[in-house]
Design goal:
Length: 140
């Protein structure tokens, strides 16, 4: 009988210790997750040129005469072409340059592009086409 009593006490002690360690584990895991999250850098804001833009603000909603362009961190999309942007670099003036590889009507064309902030607008220059900038307004 005494042997059964010792076995029952040992089992009770084991169950109690197991319950304690299980309840402490989530707290330790939560503390580890909190410290890992604090160590991760916060995401950086998108570059200024990312968004949907139009040379005429009316084109954002009425595409009878023209259409907006969409720029992501790695693509430049127009009505009839989709371009991958590579070799993206910031300029000393706070703008950006990139190399476009565009698919249009079954052909691939490569050309440079540059972006500059112009108040709420962006100025885009295609250097191979000339040095005159085209201003684009954001579409909301």
């Amino acid at each position: 009988m005494r042997g059964h009593l010792i076995t029952l006490c040992a089992l009770a002690l084991t169950a109690t210790l197991a319950a304690c360690s299980e309840s402490e584990a989530p707290q330790a895991d939560a503390e580890a997750s909190d410290s890992e999250a604090a160590a991760e850098p916060s995401p950086e804001p998108a570059p200024f040129y990312v968004g949907q833009w139009a040379a005429d603000p009316v084109w954002c909603t009425d595409q009878t005469e023209g259409f907006p362009i969409t720029i992501t961190e790695s693509r430049f999309e127009g009505r009839e072409n989709i371009c991958d942007m590579t070799q993206i670099e910031t300029t000393p003036e706070g703008g950006a340059t990139a190399q476009l590889a565009c698919q249009s009507e079954g052909e691939t064309v490569q050309e440079p592009i540059s972006f500059a902030q112009a108040g709420e607008q962006i100025a885009i220059v295609w250097p191979d086409r000339g040095t005159e900038a085209t201003l684009f307004s954001p579409c909301q």
